[in-house]
Input
Amino acid sequence: MAFAEDISLFFDKTDGFAVSATFKAAAIDVIFDNEYYAVPGEEVDVESSQPAAHCKSSDVASAVIGDALTINDGDHAGDYTIINVRPDGTGVTILALEEQ
Output
């Protein structure tokens, strides 16, 4: 069941956190994230990050691995390939991305 609250405020480009993106020729607003993480190693940790787009689930209901997503503005503007689709049950779907 989707979250009952209005999440559109989060996806507001003017007063919220969103940037413009294009998914399957449709303009959508997403929250771009490039989360840092470390994978523990035997002697040293391996540090990396995972670009992701937090989207309204209704905007990306047809998303599958291999689809393209273009971030149109902001520091991370560019073309990405979707490598994982994770609906979180609150009306938001997180698309794990790989830069093309």
